[in-house]
């Protein structure tokens, strides 16, 4: 099983492990698993503007899932947070094929429902405690021109709890580094929840920067999944379910998960992975990724085909002048709708002002420490 398949199985498998475990543990496991699913279930009152009728998973229709890693839940962060890791998975059981695309968090795009354009990962924060997932889904749906049928989110605490739940993970760390007071030594080491989170988050001291960080994140995911799908992982199913219950949210129901387990798994054997990123540029002192409309259209068409939807030629005609202007090297220019370093924010979350730019210095590239 290759890495990307494991990543997919992790995202859904963090919850689906309860379904698989039922077969091994019988009534007790079923009771625990259904309790976990009820704990992580969080519906969203929304209707996709890109479907006439809701997708029917029981009928094996192609569907999509938005996967979000939220940069909160640990390190003293109790605020709404941002979706600093964003991926979309499309699953087509009839073609036995899936597509997974990673979206750069700094993509400049319309924040649907907020009346502005800003970084993609700010949509979750702008939506507030009750509307973050909805605004993120609507924003990604608008960007990719496909229906987003479901979502799964996990926070930093979830990553830490999962590492502990599987008894830690072993890695070969090429160099020693320290992040937030946590030192991760060089060599073959066993990571616990604290060192594991630092290992997945560190960026500045890595010679490869964000590329190295992403590689370590994939390694951590792979190590966790290897233990979850092993007998050792199943023996600790109670801890795994607890980690999922407290830190994962999804609008997939128990019946949805059972149907996916029974009818969709062959589609995960043929996974095409994509990356959506643009040209980096500074606008008003803030770093953004500006997408090339032609490349975006190619991605949109590919994903629509995967979902059994026709090509939308109206999207091909979108004006690309903004892209040309913003990558021309004008670092001091401003962009209508986008935030800048001097913007005064007033994002209300249960009566508390929330600034998605407050976690890091937005005059430089976000560190993305998730």
Automatic annotation (TrEMBL):
Residues 82-229 form the Cell envelope-related transcriptional attenuator domain. Residues 308-370 are annotated as: Disordered. Belongs to the LytR/CpsA/Psr (LCP) family. It comes from the Bacteria. PANTHER family: POLYISOPRENYL-TEICHOIC ACID--PEPTIDOGLYCAN TEICHOIC ACID TRANSFERASE TAGU. This is LytR family transcriptional regulator. The lineage of its organism: Bacteria, Bacillati, Bacillota, Bacilli, Lactobacillales. Residues 318-333, 341-363 have a biased composition (Polar residues). InterPro entries: LytR/CpsA/Psr_CW_biosynth (IPR050922), LytR_CpsA_psr (IPR004474).
């Amino acid at each position: 099983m290759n890495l990307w398949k494991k990543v997919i199985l992790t995202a859904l498998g963090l919850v689906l492990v309860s379904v698989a475990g039922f077969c091994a543990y019988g009534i007790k496991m079923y009771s625990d698993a259904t309790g976990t699913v009820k704990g992580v279930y969080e519906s969203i009152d929304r209707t996709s503007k890109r479907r006439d009728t809701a997708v029917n998973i029981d009928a094996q229709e192609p569907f999509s899932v938005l996967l979000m890693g939220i940069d909160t839940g640990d390190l003293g962060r109790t605020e709404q947070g941002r979706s600093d890791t964003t991926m979309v998975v499309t699953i087509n059981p009839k073609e036995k094929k899936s597509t997974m695309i990673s979206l750069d968090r700094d993509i400049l795009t319309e924040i649907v429902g907020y009346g502005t354009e800003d970084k993609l990962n700010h949509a979750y924060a702008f939506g507030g405690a009750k509307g973050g997932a909805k605004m993120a889904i609507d924003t990604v749906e608008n960007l990719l021109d496909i229906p987003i049928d479901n979502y799964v989110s996990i926070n930093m605490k979830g990553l830490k709890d999962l590492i502990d739940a599987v008894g830690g993970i072993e890695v070969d760390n090429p160099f020693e580094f320290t992040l937030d007071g946590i030192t991760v030594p060089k060599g073959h080491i066993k990571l616990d929840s604290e060192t594991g989170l630092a290992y997945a988050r560190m960026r500045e001291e890595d010679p490869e920067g964000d590329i190295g960080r992403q590689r370590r994140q994939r390694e951590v995911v792979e190590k966790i999944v290897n233990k979850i799908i092993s007998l050792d992982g199943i023996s600790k199913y109670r801890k795994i379910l607890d980690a999922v219950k407290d830190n994962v949210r999804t609008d997939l129901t128990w019946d949805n998960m059972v149907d996916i387990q029974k009818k969709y798994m062959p589609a995960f054997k043929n996974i095409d992975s994509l990356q959506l990123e643009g040209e980096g540029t500074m606008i008003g002192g803030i770093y953004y990724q500006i997408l090339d409309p032609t490349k975006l259209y190619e991605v949109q068409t590919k994903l629509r085909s995967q979902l059994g939807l026709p090509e939308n030629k109206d999207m091909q005609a979108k004006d690309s002048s903004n892209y040309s202007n913003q990558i021309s090297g004008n670092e001091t220019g401003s962009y209508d709708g986008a935030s800048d370093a001097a913007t005064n924010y007033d994002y209300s979350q249960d009566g508390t002002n929330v600034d998605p730019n407050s976690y890091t210095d937005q005059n430089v590239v976000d560190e993305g420490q998730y």
